[in-house]
């Protein structure tokens, strides 16, 4: 037995053949360690069941357990109930929207004008024969997936407005609480034939329809480049003019 206190074992330990014999732990120390572990286990067990138990409940369970909470708990429960309601409403919206839907003129009042007051509605009036309209539809489809809390719809303009002029297309209208909060009419107002989805996102965010994570107008860089190009062109023309003036013969 390697744990026995024999002379032979002592010799083997001296030459490293047997490991040093473990010193017996103090009984009081062992008891303290055991009690400490038991206390930690009980604390974790209590915390598991006492810290915010309502967070594991659904709305029905919260209602049933309401009588078991004290005043502080009831306030916390009410706050948590409201949070869960908002999460549920958000989930319902995400299930309801999240895509660019086609509607007809007959559905306009129901889907747009009479939409819920807390819902932003973006409608695109278009014709399939106009390339810019197809580009806007493509961008709105992406934005509808990115911002499912907003309602994105499109409608062929003839089904909503008769004799609507092509120069006014694409037309994007933004509604909230049955009122028009923003409008972009024609190619220029919608962003031009080279419109990027980020630029359209910024336009909709400016009127409040969506909450973008873009930090600045993506069109700003393009505008700055155009301004710089015009300045360079103007400077180049001025230089050419001055050079031409120098080369002109002086008539006396």
From TrEMBL:
GO terms for biological process: protein folding. Residues 229-244 have a biased composition (Polar residues). It comes from the Eukaryota. It comes from Asarcornis scutulata. Residues 229-252 are annotated as: Disordered. This is PDCL2 protein. InterPro entries: Phosducin-like_chap/apop_reg (IPR051498), Phosducin_thioredoxin-like_dom (IPR024253), Thioredoxin-like_sf (IPR036249). CDD domains: Phd_like_VIAF. GO terms for cellular component: cytoplasm. Residues 56-210 form the Phosducin domain. The gene is Pdcl2.
């Amino acid at each position: 037995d390697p744990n026995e206190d024999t002379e032979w074992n002592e010799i083997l330990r001296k030459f490293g053949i047997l490991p040093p014999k473990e010193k017996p732990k103090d009984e009081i120390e062992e008891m303290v360690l055991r009690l400490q572990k038991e206390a930690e286990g009980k604390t974790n067990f209590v915390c598991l069941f006492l810290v915010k138990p309502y967070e594991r409940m659904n709305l029905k369970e919260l209602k049933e357990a309401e009588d078991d909470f004290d005043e502080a708990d009831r306030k916390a429960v009410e706050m948590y109930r409201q949070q869960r309601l908002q999460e549920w409403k958000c989930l319902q919206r995400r299930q309801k929207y999240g895509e660019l839907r086609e509607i007809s003129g007959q559905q306009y009042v129901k889907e747009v004008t009479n939409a819920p007051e807390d819902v932003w509605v973006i409608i695109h009036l278009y014709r399939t024969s106009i390339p810019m309209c197809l580009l806007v539809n493509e961008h709105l489809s992406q934005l509808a997936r990115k911002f499912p809390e907003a309602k994105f719809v499109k409608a062929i303009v003839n089904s909503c407005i008769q004799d609507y002029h092509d120069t006014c297309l694409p037309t994007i209208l933004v509604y909230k609480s049955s009122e028009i909060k923003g409008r972009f009419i024609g190619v220029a107002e919608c962003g031009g034939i080279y419109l990027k989805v980020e630029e359209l996102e910024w336009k909709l965010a400016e009127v409040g329809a969506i909450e973008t994570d873009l930090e600045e107008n993506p069109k700003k860089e393009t505008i700055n480049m155009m301004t710089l190009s015009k300045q360079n062109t103007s400077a180049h023309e001025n230089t050419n003019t001055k050079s031409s003036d120098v080369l002109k013969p002086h008539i006396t």
